[in-house]
Amino acid sequence: MLNIYKTNTMGKIEELQQFEKGCWIHLTNPSEQEKLHVVRELSIDLHFLQDALDDEEIGRIDKEGNRVKLYVDIPISTKEATKDNYTTVPLGIMVTEDYILTVCLVETAVMNEFVQGKVKSFHTHMRNRFVLQILSNTSHDYLHYLKKINKQTETLEKSLRQSTKNNELLTLLELQKSLVYFSTSLETNSLLISLLRSGSYLKMYEEDKELLEEVKIETKQAIKMTEIYTAILGNIMNGFGSVISNNLNRVMKLLTAITIVITLPMVIGTFYGMNVPLPFQEHPHAFTIIMIMSTAITSVTALLFWRKKYF
């Protein structure tokens, strides 16, 4: 999908049909025709689009003449059944004298906030500041998703106490994988921010430097949170197997105790079903005596198991 945006004199974002100076060109999983159209009209290298659409691309920054190319890893959330899965995708950004071009494989919340006009002081012609605002939104989303992961972990931790299934284990594995993606992406983003602070790639005013400093702090905070949550998840995973094994042992112990209690009167009944001489078989109240014996033995056994906390 190819979209062209530009902010008007009132600061409102409008969608255009043609390329104009000071516009923002955004490609989301573009078709071959759209990629060739952009390459032809803007005279850019097709390799930039291909790299930006490679989901394995790592964060980095390059400069060729008056064009600056950045690759930023941004977080996304996908829904699978009733679970939220988290991962990262690369966002390609090209800054030129006349426009800014962004390319991403999927639609993301980071870029949607600009389209929906939710970002303050956003202007498409302020290209360098636009890049910093993208980085700022990215760091905010990392922190937001990390908090959601932490809440999911707390919920799973509570359910572990009674669980004998693998559902919680699989969910924890997914969260652990998400944290690995976040950790790797945040490290590369942090390196990119450090390069931007040198001033060799983008010209920055004082306000831009302050914003970049905030982004740096938030990124470091996200890195620290990722490390903490990874350690917590690791500890939970280590204890998960023991918890499930212990819960399973409790269930098996209960079922075994119930089986023994039920089996005792059946054994007595089986003996008295034999065609051989047995005690009380000539007694007029033989059935009552046998029932009392069975009840007494069963009750004593059940009481013993209860005192041993098998029930």
Automatic annotation (TrEMBL):
Gene3D superfamilies tied to this protein: CorA soluble domain-like (3.30.460.20), Magnesium transport protein CorA, transmembrane region (1.20.58.340)
MF-aspect GO terms: metal ion transmembrane transporter activity
Organism expressing this protein natively: Brevibacillus antibioticus
Membrane disposition: Multi-pass membrane protein
Localization, UniProt: Membrane
Chief localization: membrane
Similarity comment: family membership: Belongs to the CorA metal ion transporter (MIT) (TC 1.A.35) family.
Listed name of the protein: Magnesium transporter CorA family protein
UniProt keyword Acetylation present: no
Recorded coiled-coil stretches: none
Lineage: Bacteria, Bacillati, Bacillota, Bacilli, Bacillales
CDD domains: EcCorA_ZntB-like_u2
Superkingdom of this protein's organism: Bacteria
Keyword Iron: no
TM regions (residue ranges): 254-274, 286-306
GO cellular component terms attached to this protein's record: membrane
Keywords associated with the record: Membrane, Transmembrane, Transmembrane helix
